[in-house]
Every structure is written in C-alpha cells, then in structure tokens.
Design a protein that fits this description.
- The two termini are about 40 Å apart.
- The protein is of the alpha+beta class.
- It has one helix and eight strands; from the N terminus they run αββββββββ.
- The protein has a single domain, classed as Immunoglobulin-like.
- The protein has a four-stranded mixed sheet with strand order 4-1-7-8, with no helix packed on it.
- Strand 2 and strand 3 form a beta hairpin.
C-alpha cells in the first residue's frame, strides 16, 4: 500500500512537471522585411536590444523573415544600402522584454515603414 502511494505521488509530480514545461514557452517576434522597390537593397542590418540580424541582399519583391526574442527593452533600428550606394538608417519601433507578435517592415530605396503588432507579457 505504501509503495502504491509513493508511485501515485511520483506520477502526479511527473505530470505536473510536464504540464509546467509544456505551458511555458519562449515569447518571440517574427520580423518580416519586404523590398517593395524595383531595385535590390543590400547590407541590411536590424538592430534591437542586445542583438542584431541581417541579410546581404534583398531582391525586388523579396521578403525575408527572422524570428527574434526580445530579452530587454529598447529601440529597433534598421540600416541598409540602396541601389545608388546610399546608406539609410531608420528607427522602426520599440520592443519590450517578453514581447510576442510580428513586425512587418516595408522597404523602399529611401524608406522603411514598420507595422508592429506586439503584445507584452509579464516576466
């Protein structure tokens, strides 16, 4: 009988641990960069708190997606070079620790237009 109680308690603890792991998840943001211009863009770098990502070239009409995790709060910026060789720098939005959602950025040769749909969750 005592062995049965220990086994039942162990099983319940195992189920609770698995439920906790299954319910906890990493909050991420999908960032989409779309070149809406008729010419390529190059040296694209997205900078956000504590990290960066980039892409060498974005062809006309091409979309590049990258998943990020905001581990701190602060501004998101993008830099790129247009077809004329001019460097462009733009502020996109502010991300906060534990944000989740999507940021779609439409790029032209001279502009970056963000559409941020983010939700912030507690720690």
């Amino acid at each position: 009988m005592k062995l049965l109680k220990i086994t039942a308690c162990t099983a319940i603890l195992a189920i609770l641990c698995l439920a906790q792991v299954a319910c906890s998840r990493s909050r991420t943001i999908v960032v989409s960069l779309t070149n809406t211009s008729a010419q390529p863009l190059s040296a694209i770098v997205v900078d956000y708190p504590e990290a960066t990502f980039g892409k060498n070239t974005l062809k006309p009409g091409e979309t590049y997606q990258y998943r990020i995790k905001a581990t701190d709060s602060g501004p998101m910026k993008i830099t790129f070079t247009n077809a004329a060789g001019q460097a462009r720098i733009f502020s996109l939005t502010t991300v906060r620790k534990n944000d989740e959602g999507a940021i779609e950025v439409r790029l032209t040769q001279d502009a970056a237009t963000p559409d941020a749909r983010l939700k912030t969750f507690g720690n």
